[in-house]
Amino acid sequence: MIEKWLLDSRCNIIHYFDLPKDWWPITQGDNQSKATAWANDFFLRALDALYPKESDLVIACNKGRVTRSEAAVFYAGYSNHSQSQIMLDFVAVRWDDAMPIKLTAESEMNAADSVGEPTTAKGYIWDFFKLLVVPCKYRLYMARASGVEKMKQVATCMRKLYQRHRGNLFSETDQFGGVVIPGAEKQRNETLILWTEGGVLQCEKISDFPLICED
């Protein structure tokens, strides 16, 4: 499912912004804002799959640099969209429930960001750590890194941090899904997919990443 959400959301972004069918968020121009929009659409697709037809959920997510009309397209079907973040980049919540937070997500789409300990309060692992400390059944993460080695480094640090804290920050029923995409289109098939299974944060390369998005 994670692969499908990722591929479908990229095609959605291409359609929303009328981008070339082979668009990829390289590190130049406004591609970081478009990459962040891709992440938000990825999160929304996961939300639709995990909580189908629950349009009363509040989506707390800053629309970023997309316009108000474009944001309206993203959140169509959800009656409540708040641009005020709730600790994380993306949170789906129903406040009247006993467990109000339904899905949390973070994205780090600056391909040149740092990889280090979460105590540095910046970079890929800090964003991932924030996901760990906010209790939620479903948690998602999307990152963009420059180069295959840096992608692997991000994934390795995530797996180590998860293993270190899974006993006290994750319950047995909590689920995590993540992706690390490259900054260069030619490396798209090096995209890494991460998910929790058997008490371990698993990681493997995407099976296939088609370049062209067909209508």
TrEMBL record:
Protein name: Uncharacterized protein
Domain of life: Bacteria
